[in-house]
UniProtKB/TrEMBL annotation:
Keyword Transmembrane helix (UniProt): yes
Species annotation: Allisonella histaminiformans
GO molecular function: hydrolase activity, acting on carbon-nitrogen (but not peptide) bonds
Record keywords, A-Z: Membrane, Signal, Transmembrane, Transmembrane helix
Source species, domain of life: Bacteria
GO biological process: carbohydrate metabolic process
GO CC annotations, alphabetized: extracellular region
Transmembrane segments: 12-35
Upper lineage: Bacteria, Bacillati, Bacillota, Negativicutes, Veillonellales
Name used for this protein in its record: Peptidoglycan/xylan/chitin deacetylase, PgdA/CDA1 family
Length: 295
């Protein structure tokens, strides 16, 4: 009888030890409870060495949550954040943050330019409800307003920079850009030297100078060699596309309305203009389908 009771006691102690270990593991894992997929991705990226060059945003994705995205990706195009209410290229800081909060609350997953490229050219799967966020030009508010908001929501984004306007009044400084490039939260890419209508330049040499000199400046100032470019005013011609392909660019952003699809021409990617006229309803429409109301 005593031997039997001792056996029961050993089993009871072993069971309690197993329960304690299970509870400990659950508690250790609770730090991730309540995080969205994007937050989990970003937490993972912060725990690992990026291995990426400066100026390239990184997000480590959970491979178990990927989709083929047959409906395409909305590439959102912003320019400036400020109080110019009647300027269609400007959006208020309040409205911009509300849009980012909408993306977060509705489980959208902002993607990097590399992920967009791989989807367009190779059909690689993406996280559910993908969206790509881009800013053009390099206004000072991209550092003072956009950068903190994007860090708050842990969203990767891309800044297409006019290199010849850096350090001018109302524009970003090279110091600010260097900080951003080293953060791996933003991809910094080419928007030419002086923002001309490229197709209207008189010679191939002038077009090459605008594109290639901007690229050389990004390398010199930031250590950034970017395979991504946005054509000023969305303007390009056959010669511009030839120059970009020869120089090793892999994606070119236009300003034509629409979404990016697997099989789209990687050098004429469509984007969706976002500014003051785009209210909450029209913003949501632009995330869902190609046939949104033009404003």
């Amino acid at each position: 009888m005593l031997v039997k009771r001792a056996g029961y006691k050993r089993k009871w102690l072993l069971g309690m030890a197993g329960t304690f270990m299970t509870l400990s593991l659950l508690c250790a894992g609770c730090g991730f409870q309540g995080l969205t997929g994007t937050e989990k991705d970003t937490v993972s990226s912060q725990q690992e060495e990026s291995g990426l060059p400066p100026g390239e945003a990184q997000v480590v994705r959970d491979d178990s949550v990927k989709y083929s995205v047959p409906e395409g990706v909305s590439v959102l195009m912003y320019h400036k954040v400020g109080d110019e209410k009647h300027n269609g290229a400007v959006i208020s800081a309040r409205n911009f943050e509300r849009q980012m909060k909408y993306l977060k609350d509705h489980q959208y997953h902002p993607i990097t330019m590399q992920e967009l490229h791989d989807f367009v050219t190779e059909g690689k799967a993406l996280p559910s409800k993908p969206v790509c966020i881009t800013f053009d030009d390099g206004y000072e508010d991209s550092y003072t307003v956009v950068y903190p908001i994007m860090k708050k929501y842990r969203f990767p984004w891309t800044l297409f920079l006019i290199t010849g306007m850096v350090d001018q009044p109302g524009r970003m400084t090279w110091g600010q850009l260097k900080e951003m490039a080293d953060s791996h939260t933003v991809t910094i890419a080419n928007h030419t030297v002086s923002h001309p209508h490229l197709s209207q330049l008189k010679s191939r040499g002038e077009k090459e100078k605008e594109i290639l000199n901007a690229e050389n400046t990004l390398v010199e100032k930031l250590g950034v060699r970017s395979p991504w470019i946005a054509y000023p005013y969305g303007d390009y011609d056959k010669e511009v596309l030839q120059i970009c392909k020869k120089a090793g660019f892999e994606l070119g952003m236009s300003m034509s309305d629409g979404r990016a699809h697997n099989g789209s021409d990687p050098f004429t990617i469509r984007r969706i203009w976002i500014g003051n006229p785009v209210d909450d309803k029209h913003f949501e429409d632009r995330l869902i389908h190609d046939n949104f109301v033009k404003l």
